[in-house]
Amino acid sequence: MREVDRSPGVNLERIKEIVAECKVERWALIPVVQRIQNEFGYVPPEAIPIVAKSMKLFPSQVQGVISFYAQFYTKPRGRQVIRVCRGTACHVRGAETLLKMLEERLGIQEGETTPDMEYTLETVACIGVCTLAPNVVVNDAVHGYMDPEKLAKLLTKGEG
Amino acid sequence: MGEAYTVFVCAETPCLSMGSEDVYRAFEAEVKRQGLSNVAVEISGCHGHGLCNHGPSVVVEPEGIFYLGVRPEDVPEIVSAHLRDGRPVERLLYRDPKSGRLIARYHDVDFYRKQCRVILRNCGRINPEKIDHYIAAGGYRALAKALLKMTPEQVIEEIKRSGLRGRGGAGFPTGRKWEFARNVCSPEKFIICNADEGDPGAFMDRSVLEADPHAVIEGLTIGGYAIGATTGFIYVRAEYPLAVKRLRIALDQARAKGFLGKNILGSGFTFDIYLKEGAGAFVCGEETALIASIESQRGMPRPRPPYPAQAGLAGKPTTINNVKTLASVPIIIDRGAAWFAGIGSEKSKGTTVLALSGKIVNAGLVEVPMGTSLSTIIYDIGGGIPDGKRLKAVQTGGPSGGCIPARIPDTPVDFESLAMVGSIMGSGGMVVMDEETCMVEVARYFLSFTQAESCGKCVPCRLGTKQMLEILTRITEGKGQEGDVETLLKIARTVKETSLCGLGQTCPNPVLSTIHYFRDEYEAHIKEKRCPASNWERLPLKSRRGVRAPR
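YS: structure for the whole thing
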């Protein structure tokens, strides 16, 4: 197993910069959180009071928005984020089996990250690539027509 | 030779995932290496021939020669044989699965021949990242016509006469929607493009945005002019990164050319469009929830009235239209209401774009006149069911829709007819299911989706979906009890009647329609503890070697 990669210390100055840049935008809260997440890979809890203060909100209100949306994360995620598409077409073509296989193989449940921070396993409602169902997305790359063999290969390649 | 060729390499998500970017680069390099000066290499949106599963696809215009499954190593041959010597490469052409005949031109492929492309008119024929291509295809002509020759009232009148109805699912007449907003007096109004295509099994909005973003921008700007809006928003799903990227490019280009911004085309009309990325919540497709989300709040719906047309974004009058509705607007203004109203069925005018997927030979986007029958779509265009299996049902409208059984294959696909058989058009997802698909499991699947996506604000939806999911899960696990079906029906009706927003009001539809048409399957699960369709776990993947049986 690889060396455990701790998430680097959060640069609060950078968060303040992002907040200042976005503040001009109308209804800036979600865009600010999106930009923070794009840079850090997740929304560090330390960022919440800073964002709240600049938007004149309570931290709980910011937290409330973050927890409402599926794509905001308050914990660091793995270097490889594997998402199994759960769209209807993927479902009727076996996405459930792929998810179970991944859970077994990686030893984690949906929504979890491996202790070595290599993989995060997630599902997505539908990525709209139904013609190639079932689909698995690794970071931003879509892998269509998944089957157990291809999936096994994909994982070995990632480990290689 | 002499003739100038344009090579369009499909650069939509499915083809990209199969390596079309490398194919594009190989073409560029090879054309340069062989010194052909009369060949342009372009990326394009989906060629839309229902053969996305055989990508990457390449079309050589102006002949319309269509290559499938092109790999970078095939490129030198195509360039030298076809582009230099004028002899198409046979081994990469499409072979008709029925007749075994080679088909060189995409116009002749069955899948394409029976379609009628209005919304998808430019998909695959222009480079979506070049505004000049869109303009050359007649783009922004409608905007100029609307702004310079028509009053906002005339624009609304034209849209009303065309019979255009909202393509987001509800089918509300677009002209009337615009008229409401026009008639509200306010110094500031908004118009929003709803590109939050969250339905599992639907991908037409993604395709339109990736292939022809300017059509949506032009439609939104015309809509803004018609209702008197100052600002437009495009609310797009963050799960569609490529669509977001192409929209950003398109917006910058439109601003640079003066189609957006101050005093557009010297007409005195000022309008700009901002992009808002969603953050992952199905309920944000509902208009009041979408508005809350643009305002950076939790995306929860609120009771109506007041309707967004009266008090929407920031309390100002707001109109929300779907991607396909807006993409239809420019062509209606350009070619006239009568032309559009001449397509389709009596009450549903124009065309509909369907995302055909599931157990079907040709999966892809299909655009047909409203009122085309299901069997035409599945057999003539979709090529039927693979592996010699029989059709069992077609699921339309995603989690808000229902399952139409194979025994009524002549159902016309339009707003009224689908409602009559207990389903809906929805945004146009169409998932084909074969005889091995367990209908109880399908209902359970949709409920698991809506249960997870319910925002939890109103009790019937929050608790009702959970209850129904629990019962359905129990039935699929062989633990169904006598009376479960009745309980399901009772909860389903209550949730439908008493929920606050569209999500709750429609989420029982998959349960109701599967019970209505496939009640015997429920009974078999409950009484005989078996699944008549197949063992669900056994069916999906071709090979299950090395996979331990789950559950």
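YS: worth flagging: The first helix of chain B runs from residue 13 to 17.
IM: good catch. Also Chain B has four domains: 5-109, 131-342, 351-434, 445-528.
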